[in-house]
Design a protein that fits this description.
Shape: globular
Strand content: under 5%
Number of helices: 15
Radius of gyration: 20 Å
Length: 266
């Protein structure tokens, strides 16, 4: 195995030999021991200092928000993260009572999901911040194209199911924001969500399409029995959680089926 493939966090080795979604601890250990990660500073000696700087920056931004009375001790933590992000990006509203923008709702959904995965508030904020920035920057052009890709791949997998959605006028009303803008935050449980986000972080937002397709395939009988766009959308927004791990595993299989071995396929 090449050095680059060993570094590919939670993506390559086990999938090449047929294991989907296995915890790749050896790959993670290699990644963390590597002196040139590309994410953290180039050398281990710098890590502690950089984390100190990030903690200081976190505390400074939080203090500024408290000074201008934008947040208080009673402010929910995910909202604190939102206000910090808004301040750092120059988008802090004049009053906390202003209505939230759609992009703010997306941020909060992702923040709630990350908060379930990460205990330390400083780490949590930096992960949210970087993840949202990746969606807003790297995937800015790709995300709006995902509904069309979803239709394309669903047609390849089950044309009859796609026809049913069109007959019910449901295709344009599916929960695309939940699936693609929020990356399934609030839809999938933590364990399943981590496996999907691993792919997004490592370079492919197209995995989101195959998760959506697999959700439709998994619940085909239920969806085919519903005859209105509203009922279909409501069901898909609240799918049973006990099927999520199997859905993600099958979605990864679909991803490989249609895209080969998409290590960094956007």
């Amino acid at each position: 195995m090449t050095e680059d493939s060993q570094r590919n966090f939670r993506s390559v080795y086990y999938e090449k030999v047929g294991f989907r979604g296995v915890e790749e601890k050896k790959s993670l250990e290699i990644l963390l021991k590597d002196d040139r990660l590309g994410i953290l500073p180039p050398h281990h000696e710098s890590h502690a200092q950089v984390m100190l700087y990030r903690k200081e920056q976190y505390c400074d931004v939080l203090h500024a928000l408290k000074v201008v009375r934008c947040v208080t001790e009673a402010t929910p933590q995910v909202e604190v993260y939102l206000r910090m992000y808004q301040l750092e990006s120059g988008k802090l509203p004049r009053s906390p009572s202003f209505p939230l923008e759609p992009e703010d709702e997306v941020f909060l959904a992702i923040a709630k999901a990350v908060e379930e995965m990460v205990e330390d508030s400083v780490d949590c904020y930096w992960i949210i911040r970087c993840f949202v920035n990746q969606l807003n920057n790297k995937y800015r052009e790709s995300l709006p194209q995902l509904p069309k890709a979803f239709e394309q791949y669903l047609n390849l997998e089950d044309g009859r199911l796609l026809s049913h959605l069109k007959t019910c006028s449901a295709l344009s009303k599916l929960p695309y924001d939940l699936w693609f803008k929020r990356c399934f935050a609030g839809c999938l449980p933590e364990s399943s969500l981590q496996r999907v986000w691993d792919k997004v972080v490592s370079g492919s937002c197209k995995i989101l399409v195959f998760v959506a397709v697999e959700i439709l395939l998994t619940f085909k009988i239920k969806v085919m029995a519903l005859n209105s766009a509203e009922k279909i959308t409501k069901f898909l927004e609240n799918i049973p959680q006990d099927s999520s791990d199997a859905i993600v595993s099958k979605a990864i299989d679909l991803w490989h089926k249609h895209c080969g071995t998409p290590v960094h396929s956007a």
